[in-house]
């Protein structure tokens, strides 16, 4: 089974036996998608990466000219419908391209903000006239876009924005200051969120040349120094009445729906960053000698290389799984429907849990990889002359924007619980099943295939998570959502389960299909499950301790233990094998494109 053939419910991975859900894997990509990705790779390697230093001097004319070149190659048109001179490729193809476009930190942010949060609000919520007016220009790169939600006093709590819009005859008059706006230094069009009459949160399209629009100075930032970030100031900014985007008072649907898309994109973008950093680390650790040997011969350096590679493999597995579900859901919608935009947004929103998982897991994996690269380079890793220093600074933002990782953690568990309460996910039934299974937990021999043992581990993890989460629901009831640490532990368990399961299925398909790198995929997956299983186990136990104590805690821990009959293999041995493959090849060899 390569591509999702049935509509999967978002969040259902926890409740569905491993191997019984459809799953798109990177190995399922067809030649067309790979060709797009290769074109993006060629563009990045030929045009962007050689100008890395110049871009990071905040040379905005250079960035704009590179964006225009990307536009001429069709790289800005991937997600724009064909009726507006776009390519309207499926999301997975657009994501394979995005991964390549993410190999230079600042440019990645410019590209993503333009093609994602800047352009997609018009694609999904624009009127016919708005789409005709703006999308062809955005598809070609003639115009560039920005998305302005945040204000000085409202970031995570975006709905408390103070910017206002008042109707004055045939015009809206906008006032307010938007903060931290990516691409503000050169954007031709801004998606601006403001409250009509100070109350109804709504979205508007503001052009750079509209009267009353200006931008502040460039922010001085920790990283992505080549990406333009400014305030956008609206002083009695007058725009025609028909520049309202969507409906009055429904701006939150645009703001949060678009951020949700930004989340899986950010997960995919992380892959591009990780691959570039690992390449540097493999090269440097083979060239650097200490104690008479290349440092890549030391176990603790090999550990770093192997852990980096594992994160890349798992990140791809979980992100493309999510994108596969989204594409499948989108294929059930059509641009010919009068409510196409709303239907498409609903299709993507179904996977809000998985999108937040992509964002949190991807951004933290990328930060881990960059941090380990700094360490592997030693003192040179701390020097601005070597790549890891910049990589670490550049990727730090990923844990902050598109909803901070704290907010996304609250969303992962919160959305799952909300859907269970509404009866959309049979969480309670699964809880009852798990309670019964305490006396007869799943056995290894119930699982088949080359990775049967790992599948058993994943299923045990699901039960530990369910037991602990069920206990929290039972004890805390409605108060659970206010207990953020408990919610975060639940989210971390869900995230690890999704990551492990996605990797196991991907690796198993590679093994069954005789893929060239199947053995490496097996080692990576086994390593990841070894480590991740124990994180879930630890979180399940700690979560129980957060909600009960004494005899009740002893009882709860005994329940978790009933599902703990999973024995790790030697991570050191696996890491040694993975690292030697990386060192021998000189790169991460499982290339999708
Ligand atoms: C380089 C850069 C580019 C950006 N680009 C854009 C852009 O193009 N468009 C745009 O609109 N915005 C943009 N942003 C803004 C970004 O989205 C916000 O910074 C982000 O949403 C966080 O908001 P904040 O900075 O106000 O932090 P706050 O919301 O004040 O959060 C501060 C801390 O408190 C935590 N926190 C907040 N609320 C809760 C809660 N309920 N529970 C638990 N913890 C909580 C947060 O997780 C965080 O750790 C950008 C920011 C940066 C730095």
What does this structure look like?
There is one protein chain. This protein has 593 residues and is an alpha+beta fold. It has 4 domains: 12-144, Acyl-CoA dehydrogenase/oxidase, N-terminal domain (Butyryl-Coa Dehydrogenase, subunit A, domain 1, Orthogonal Bundle), CATH 1.10.540.10; 147-245, Butyryl-CoA Dehydrogenase, subunit A, domain 2 (Beta Barrel); 252-405, Butyryl-CoA Dehydrogenase, subunit A, domain 3; 423-585, Butyryl-CoA Dehydrogenase, subunit A, domain 3, CATH 1.20.140. Helix content is 56%, strand content 10%. It has 19 helices and 10 strands. The protein has helices spanning 31-48, 52-55, 60-72, 91-101, 105-118, 120-125, 128-140, 251-287, 299-330, 340-349, 352-376, 387-395, 405-421, 427-437, 452-476, 484-512, 518-547, 550-562, 571-585, and strands at 145-148, 164-168, 171-182, 189-196, 200-207, 213-215, 229-240, 244-245, 289-290, 293-294. Strands 1, 2, 3, 4, 5, 6, 7 and 8 form an 8-stranded mixed sheet that branches. The longest helix has 37 residues, at 251-287. The two termini are 20 Å apart. Flavin-adenine dinucleotide binds next to strand 1, strand 3 and helix 13. Flavin-adenine dinucleotide binds at residues 113, 147-150, 155-156, 180-182, 221, 229, 397, 400-401, 404, 406-407, 484.
- In DSSP terms (H or I, runs of 4 or more residues), the helix count works out at 19
Uncertain regions: pLDDT < 50 for 5+ in a row? none
The end-to-end span amounts to 20 Å
**Helix/strand order:** HHHHHHHEEEEEEEEHEEHHHHHHHHHHH
CATH architecture type of the largest domain:
Up-down Bundle
Helical content class: 55-70%
Mean pLDDT level: 97
Structural class: alpha+beta
The CATH topology name of the largest domain reads Butyryl-CoA Dehydrogenase, subunit A, domain 3
Please, how many domains?
4
Q: Name the shape in a single word.
A: globular
Q: Enumerate the distinct ligands.
A: flavin-adenine dinucleotide
Query: How large is the share of residues in beta strands?
Result: 5-15%
Let me know the largest β-sheet. 8 strands, mixed
Rg calc = 24 Å
